[in-house]
Amino acid sequence: MKEIAVVGGSEFTLGYRLAGIKNVVTTLNPQVALKEFIEKKNVGIVILDTQSMDSLDEDDKEEVVNSIDPVFVVVSEEAHQEALRKMIKQSIGVDLLKE
After folding, report:
1. Crossing angle for the helix pair 58-66 and 81-92, nearest 10 degrees?
2. By Cβ atoms counted within 10 A, which residue in 8, 58, 66, 70 is the most buried?
3. pLDDT per position in the chain (99 positions), as tens?
């Protein structure tokens, strides 16, 4: 069974810890943690905050956006429509947000 993992700052990860998620990495340098989760086969979903995503270099961002196993979900206070559009299109093969 695949697990859920969370990467982000301490305030971001606190709620996930309280919810019982065990794979929680609180770090200022998420690149190392994300690489580990990509290599692990027991993690199916990785939730990360926008600050962690923004701190990645362009190659790592591209790898996160294009990853299918695990799936990366970026959670933020504001909408990131382009990233959401890319994930939906990659998942189901249809651009639902196309005008």
Report:
1. 40
2. 8
3. 888 999 988 888 888 999 999 889 887 778 888 888 888 888 899 998 888 888 888 888 888 888 888 888 888 766 556 666 676 676 677 775 566
Those residues whose C-beta lies under 8 Å from the C-beta of residue 14, and which sit 6 or more positions away, are none
Fold of 3-92: Rossmann fold (3.40.50)
With a CB cutoff of 8 Å and minimum separation 6, the contacts of 99 are none
**What is the residue extent of each domain of the chain?**
3-92
Q: Are strands 43-49 and 23-26 parallel, antiparallel or unpaired?
A: unpaired
pTM of the model: 0.74
Helix (H, G, I), strand (E, B) or coil at 4: strand
